[in-house]
Amino acid sequence: MTRIVLDNDVHQLNHLTAPVELCDKAGRTLGVFCPLGTEGGGSGIKSPYPTAEIERRRKNRSGRSLAEIWRDLKLKDTGTQDQ
After folding, report:
1. DSSP line for 30-68
2. In the 8-state DSSP scheme, what is residue 14?
3. Residue 6 lies inside a defined structural domain of this protein
4. How would you write the pLDDT of the chain (83 residues) with one tens digit per residue?
5. What is the maximal distance between C-alpha atoms in the chain?
6. Domain count, the chain
7. Which of 23, 44, 56, 67 could form a Cys-Cys staple with 34, CB 3.0–4.6 A?
């Protein structure tokens, strides 16, 4: 994630307890600021999946390893096959 250091005119953000919409002087929305410790762990984003589905997927450890995925991507990029 990119980090932007803001100037001193951000004192309004110091004591927020809920997410807020940030806008520029023209009223255009720039994004949403979610203070740490607020609902959603500070992100304000909720999963579209129910908790039971998330747990089911955590327990199902099938698929390929990261090493296999990287190897396949490298082969695809170079156009060669690993023998």
Report:
1. EEEE--TTSTTTTT----SS-HHHHHHHHH---S--HHH
2. T
3. no
4. 677 777 777 887 888 888 888 888 888 898 888 887 766 445 556 778 899 998 998 888 788 889 999 999 998 887 765 54
5. 61
6. 1
7. 44
Q: Is residue 73 part of a domain?
A: yes
Q: Could you give the CA distance from residue 78 to residue 75 in angstroms, rounded to a whole number?
A: 5
Q: Is 4 inside any structural domain?
A: no
- Parallel, antiparallel, or unpaired: how do β-strands 20-23 and 29-33 relate? antiparallel
Domain of 19 in residue numbering reads as 11-78
Contact 42, 16 (CB under 8 A): no
List the one residue out of 12, 33, 37, 10 whose CA is nearest residue 21: 33
Q: What pLDDT is attached to residue 67?
A: 92
Phi and psi at residue 48, in whole multiples of 5°? -80, -5
